[in-house]
């Protein structure tokens, strides 16, 4: 009898070992967000509870992996909990994404795996597992979209409704992405670009829950440099997307500077408080800032608590109210400014010597202006 029990125990152990040796690794430890990075949401947007990653849906943004992935099999379960019941529940999985959002948006350039309930529009989109390119990514749907979009509509309806768990399996290989919904393949895209990058969960308006995330990496198919997303350099978002936390906001500021869903809107009507200073101090840094205004106006970034003449002025040749992306690099007393991929200021000195460290300010001496995606990273000595 003891030999039989020992044999059965050995069989059970071997079976468990084989199950664990299937090549899959947990993408979520069930306890905290280790291995994930909150890109552009408030600290309260993403949290862990009962072995689930949960998003409140506010603000719009995403939680991405710390590392990039190329070819893989990813499996996870999701559930939408819209409030009120019956309202739209919107979220998604971003595949092959960049570390920070695309210009003027809360989303990353990527291929999106739709995670949606209570919204279906014939020949347009569904709540059944659409695949599509967003914000500069490219792909070809396995079946042509009725409107010619880069979007694959599912071959059949397999998703359950709100407050019910669904299982997704995404298989990515050499720019091909296939989605299995509750056990069956229903949609796919190919010739995707990029085809290596970060994976991310989306926050977009309502509560969504994720669990049982696991991934199996597949051999590389050697993507070109043009097919690989940017690598994170240590960017830190200076916006919560919901409020003015992180900024020295007086009552006057709060009356005229409003943060909503990731966009900071200045109404142009403040009598005195027309600049908003950070609570943090910075030395040498690189700063990304998306901005737009109605036309001519003095918009800019003040650095290290500097004077007016030491403001980095933001101007653009785009149309009024188009989003611009400016990247400011400050080293010592010298600044480089690139706007919309064009060098505007090239390693020029400020007229007065700057302090070693100091706050930065979003500043305007003119009409209304909007800011979004303000990211900063402090430079190392050898950069």
Topology:
Blueprint lengths: L1 H19 L4 E2 L9 E3 L7 E4 L2 E4 L5 E9 L2 E9 L8 E9 L12 E8 L13 E4 L3 E4 L9 E2 L13 E8 L2 E6 L2 E10 L3 E7 L4 E10 L18 E2 L13 H6 E4 L2 E4 L8 E3 L7 E8 L6 E4 L8 E4 L9 E8 L2 E6 L2 E8 L11 E4 L4 E10 L5
Antiparallel strand pairs: 1-16, 2-5, 3-4, 4-16, 5-15, 6-12, 6-16, 7-8, 7-15, 8-9, 9-11, 10-14, 12-13, 13-14, 17-28, 18-19, 19-28, 20-27, 21-24, 21-28, 22-23, 22-27, 24-25, 25-26
Give a concise summary.
The chain is mainly beta and 383 residues long.
What would you note in describing this structure?
By secondary structure, this protein is mainly beta. The protein is built from 2 helices and 28 strands. The protein folds into 2 domains: 23-228, Exo-inulinase, domain 1 (Jelly Rolls, Sandwich); 237-378, Jelly Rolls (Sandwich). Strands 1, 3, 4, 6, 10, 12, 13, 14 and 16 form a 9-stranded antiparallel beta sheet that branches. Strands 17, 18, 19, 21, 24, 25, 26 and 28 form an 8-stranded antiparallel beta sheet that branches. It has a 7-stranded antiparallel beta sheet with strand order 2-5-15-7-8-9-11, with no helix packed on it. The longest helix has 19 residues, at 2-20. The model is unreliable at 1-19 (pLDDT under 50).
